[in-house]
Amino acid sequence: MAKKIIILLLVLTLVLPFAVSCGQNGGGDDTGKATEATGTAGESGDENEYAEIDAYVQELAESTDTAGSTFTYIGRSSDNFPTEDKETGDIQSDAVYYRQRDLADIFGIDWTPVITDGGPTTVDQVTNEVTAGGDAYDLVYGNVITVSQYLFNSGLIRRVDTLEQIDLDREWWVQSLRDVYSIKNKLFFLRGCATVESFQDTDCVLFNKTVASMFPEVNEEELYDLAREGKWTLDEMQRIASYVPENPTGTGIYRYANTNGVGLLFSSGLKITNFDEEGAPYIADTLPVEFLDLSQITVEMFGNKSLTPSWDYRKEESKTSVYKVDEDYDWFVDNKALFQFSGTGDAIYLRQYDVTFGILPMPKGSASQSQYYSYANPWGSGSLTIPKTTKNIDVTATITEAMAALSQKYVKSAYYDMLLRGQSIFDMESRDMLDIIFRTVVYDMVDIYSGGDVNQWGPLMQDLSYDLTYDNSSITSHWKSNAKSTKFTIKGIVKNADRED
Fold it and tell me: What is the per-residue pLDDT across 352-403, written as a single tens digit (0 to 9) for each?
């Protein structure tokens, strides 16, 4: 019976309209037109649905002589590349294959993916090529914090907002890019439908339906009603979680499966980066009092081992020593925790396990907050950059724009509509919650300047994350000391931007 219900929900999802595009705003409602997902990612259904995109791509093809060009993308192995140069029956791989097939057919190009094993390898290969003056790569795929920020800091990528072929006002680009990632009104990173991570890395809350059913006071319908009515707040989440008793022995049920203090900071409407009148980024000299207030709440939630199975790595604790359980023990999957803070992509990943869950937006900081905010985690945030040594920039920019447009048709349709809003959900309410979540995705420049290494955040975010999780007694002093080094990094970033025309 359960399987029949899930199949029915999937069928309904594929024929009901959706109202989200890749061009999420950082602080406003989605501006994309409602379309309809049917069949296989743009391969069937009403062809008029994508007529505007097809016409636009054709105009691009007629505007620039691209025939005979070789277009080379480099990036780690991911859903951004088809697994094979043909249809395989895999929804996501086929969607990317269709995109690449259309690019080759319409523009007369040979596209060549260079697949790396991760961000550091991508950075090394691009760095070696560009510093030697080579132009082997036209476009770089990579996460913001592990690839893009490093290439920018090294002066290896070019501005993208001055390229006339790239229309940042189109719905296939994140609409807040120029507001959030510009450096003195100059933009170097592209994000949108062209990278699958746009639908994977956004923060959300999952609740375990099996655990919820164990406690009569936890009402699944109430959770959805609160979210739908704009009343899903941090206080409300704590109130509902409190129906789960404290678990000091580690043998019962936890309220929270994992920690996400930074995500709660952004979902409360707070931000780290500000911009001056010239568009240069800066951070406050002293810790904003709202950060301190929030840390007192989050440390009580996540640092309390009776509420959350967390382990203080700075005290060299481990899962095994603290909880005397297997290293890979997962409380949410094993139906031993009510709430889990996740990226939206986890909703698809977790379907392989025997766990039933619902999806909720990140809670507001207070009832007075006008809307929900969901932070796009920089560790998973996909981005596109163009190397400085790319010679035929008109061709590169034209193909990049066309690829983004075709991604709205194929990739977004496949991942967001069919997989995320289709196969990942257990109820139709979760589908509606996903639409709420993606209306106001927020980003922060701190992704770029908080890390000087391709493998980890810099001190500011490391300490802030720790202080929001385990112990807020040092949050003020940490902020004061880290603000100095971060400001030095920002000066270097602004200096790099100033070198660009």
Answer: 899 999 999 999 999 999 999 999 987 777 899 999 999 899 999 999 999 9
Phi, psi angle pair for 448, to nearest 5°: -85, -50
Fold for domain 203-375+443-498? D-Maltodextrin-Binding Protein; domain 2 (3.40.190)
Range 2-190+390-431 classified under CATH 1.10.443: no
Q: Tens of pLDDT along 298-330?
A: 999 999 989 998 877 788 777 665 555 544 448
Q: pTM surpassing 0.70?
A: yes
Phi/psi for 202 (5° steps) reads -80, 135
CB 255 within 8 A of CB 307: yes
Q: How far apart are the first and last CA of the chain?
A: 63
**330 is written with which tokens?**
């997962």
CA 209, CA 203: separation in Å to the nearest integer? 19
Three-state secondary structure call for residue 285: coil
Rounded Cα–Cα distance for residues 192 and 174 (Å): 5
Domain range summary for the chain, segments of one domain joined by +: 2-190+390-431, 203-375+443-498
Can you give the C-alpha Rg of the chain in angstroms?
23
Residue type, 228: R
Question: Six-digit token pair at 260?
Answer: 């996400």
Instruction: Say how far apart CA 312 and CA 49 lie, in whole Å.
Output: 51
In one-letter notation, the amino acid at residue 162 is T
Give the mean pLDDT of 201-208. 95
Average of per-residue pLDDT values in the chain: 86
Instruction: Say yes or no: do domains 2-190+390-431 and 203-375+443-498 share a fold.
Output: yes
